[in-house]
């Protein structure tokens, strides 16, 4: 029976059909459980804080709920920030697989501590789960969104079906964290180490064996031998480019070199602005946000949150499949920021006029539009700022500094998340509707930044990124793009001229 995952459309005899077998998909799927750990945590914690049983177990009331909510949620981001740094260095020296397995163990221990029911263990558990997720950042966005939706609906389910008088109501959503962690450990325990990392450490035999396994081919198959040779050639080219020096200090010096530092800086600032648009305030505190526009009752808020998760997931899937490679990066960033800003400013104006932070507003067209605006915000954000900053940060960096450049971007992601999720409960209790004005204004800043400094990178190969971001290229996006297009036209013209001269030479020889 033919493997249904095998691509039989390839007619090239040099490319065996078995390389598209199930093992490639299993490796990818195994790693995506790390995204599920992050996605579920983003969703469940805000709803769990609103469950009556959780408030009863931790004796939450109006005087301490703001501080505890802020601390509980933000401990995760604090741990993730340091997890990203530790994960980078450990992965460089010990390999990718040990870091993934170790992160899964740390996350599982943190999840178990949160089940104890004491505030000290809750804080410690949140830090450990953050440490476990920190090295991964953004691996597989679709799995992340699926887990996020699952987290929203788990809270709704336990609130509807489990009595608020029992601690099981909040322990179930907390305990579900162990499922993606367990699946990560189960799946990754028998997976291969990265062939490229093995080759970079001169473990050629192990690299060839791993490559042969994932390609479902014999170790001495010509395709495996050629692919390994390409990996080694790329590594050798990196070493030659860096003058045979690959110490951490030398790599960091490369990161601050002209033509490279601007790429890293844009990626880092995109991560910062991504969070300042307010997305994680909704992800982590969605029941609180819905309550601020008049949704009363725990079940009603959790239901609206679940629908928000479905909208965001659907938009993200559409973005990944149809938008990003068809419409590029720059256009969706600009359109998404405009739509998200309109939604945020409407929420600000509505909550100011209706005084929804201080009283329950009437159920009228204005309140229904406010709910719709949260979903509209999710749509505009989902096809733009949700994934494009991650794509941009990874695709513009030179190979030799990509790992540390992405570490900088991921660290900013966690740091910005920490700032937002720690501050939001205090913002809601103090400046109230000003919270929406703040996020709306930041989204306008993000729009201006993207327009001025983020050039279109769709269709630009890695070796041409220096033409867009070179030391002698303008920092303004439109000029940088024009510079690339002029370079491309000149290069293509030179190639065509060379082909014409070659044909003329052949014609003269025949004459």
UniProtKB/TrEMBL annotation:
Molecular function terms from GO: carbohydrate:proton symporter activity
Keyword Transmembrane: yes
Annotated InterPro entries: MFS_dom, MFS_sugar_transport-like, MFS_Sugar_Transporters, MFS_trans_sf, Sugar/inositol_transpt, Sugar_transporter_CS
Record Pfam families: Sugar_tr (PF00083)
Subcellular location: Cell membrane
Keywords linked to the UniProt accession: Membrane, Quinate metabolism, Transmembrane, Transmembrane helix, Transport, Ubl conjugation
One Gene Ontology CC term in the entry: plasma membrane
Positions of transmembrane segments: 20-40, 72-91, 98-116, 136-158, 170-192, 300-324, 331-350, 370-392, 404-424, 436-454
Membrane topology, record value: Multi-pass membrane protein
Domain of life: Eukaryota
Major facilitator superfamily (MFS) profile domain location: 27-458
Major site of localization recorded for this protein: membrane
SUPFAM superfamilies linked to this entry: MFS general substrate transporter
Family under the similarity heading: Belongs to the major facilitator superfamily. Sugar transporter (TC 2.A.1.1) family.
Subunit structure comment from the entry: Interacts with creB.
Role: Integral membrane transporter that imports quinic acid to be catabolized as a carbon source.
Name of this chain's protein: Quinate transporter
Lineage: Eukaryota, Fungi, Dikarya, Ascomycota, Pezizomycotina
